[in-house]
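Field guide to reading this record: the first block holds the primary sequence, the second block holds the structure written as discrete tokens, and the final block holds curator observations. Each block starts with its own label. This record concerns LysR family transcriptional regulator GigC, catalogued under organism Castellaniella ginsengisoli.

BLOCK 1 — SEQUENCE
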Amino acid sequence: MLGLSIRQIEVFVAVATAGGVRQAADRLHLTQPAVSMALGELERQLGAPLFDRERGRLRLNAQGAEQLPLAREILERLGDMQRRHPDACGTLEGELRIGASNTVGNYLVGELLGPIAARHPLVALRLTVDNTRDITRLLLDHAVDIACVEGPVHHAQLETLPWRNDALVVCAAPAHPLARRARLQPRDFADARWILRERGSATRSLTEQAMSALPPGRILLELGQIEAIKQAVIAGLGIACLPYAATLDAVATGRLRVLRTPFLRLDRRLSIVLHRSRYRGALIEAFLQSLEVKPHAQD
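BLOCK 2 — STRUCTURE
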């Protein structure tokens, strides 16, 4: 039987998370030799290295990537056991790694993180912002614990829970010909110059669906950030579909005009996404409760 210790598992998770022995030692308030010794002993007992060592740097290898979710689960379950002790104060602590798509991470971060930060101030929140495709990949790789994205996510290993509704709006500069029309028809968009998000973005997918219902236009630019697209539209380079929340400041100051397009379907749902095989301990449950999201019953 393996003689693994909780300290060894803590060291492994800390090194994998922090990216090195020195950083892990600082996080755990240990000396670097103590961290190196604990990690080496864990690898010896498991019979395989968990990291590739290149020029003094540690990089998680395939064996380490496979073991890391299990190690995190052990620590989370231990924390849950300790909180159930009669003498425990019940205060929730720990780290929650959250992935968010660009719309959520840049414009709805207060609504996403505010409730849990207020209820559980000792929980450290780590937010990663990227497009929906890349956030989904991080969740599948167990690089984040939970995700919030726009648009549908279809994967057998992932569970999607509805959070709130959202919408895109078609925008133009106030001087743009389309912004000057009192009432728009689909034919008015013929030959329009569009500015789009990069492929892999849920905003891009919904924009392309909207464009398919309009006469052919031209894709002038593809940009990776919503703010960059907004500035390009304000400059008069073209029109774009933007998240409603991203337009509020520019519309209020008269730099941007929202076009009325009742003939386009631009509504969408923001969703919380979880890995089906990941242990859902107190941290994840607290996060879901803070957003008033009810998970499906697990088998």
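BLOCK 3 — OBSERVATIONS
The CA atoms of residues 50 and 67 lie 8 Å apart.
The longest strand covers residues 158-172.
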